Amino acid sequence: MTSPALETEAPLVSPAISPLITKPPSGLFASAIALRLMALLLALPNTT
Asked: What's this model's pTM, rounded to 2 decimal places?
C-alpha cells in the first residue's frame, strides 16, 4: 500500500521541488547539505 502512494506523490512533489532547486537560496542549502554529508563521511572512519 505504501509503494503506490509514493508513486502517486512523486510526480506531484518533483515539479514542485525542481523549480526550487534552480533558485540560488536552495542551491546554497543543497551545498550546505553536501558539505554536511562530506563531514559525516570523514567523521565515520574516526569514530569506528
From this structure: 0.38
Rounded CA-CA distance 47/37 in Å is 15
Q: What is the pLDDT of residues 29-47, one digit of tens each?
A: 778 888 888 888 887 776 6
**How many angstroms separate the CA atoms of 44 and 41, rounded?**
5
Q: How many domains does the chain have?
A: 1
Which range marks the domain in which residue 22 is found?
A: 2-47
What pLDDT score was predicted for residue 13? 52
CB 26 within 8 A of CB 20: yes
Q: How many CA atoms lie within 13 A of 23 on its CB side?
A: 8
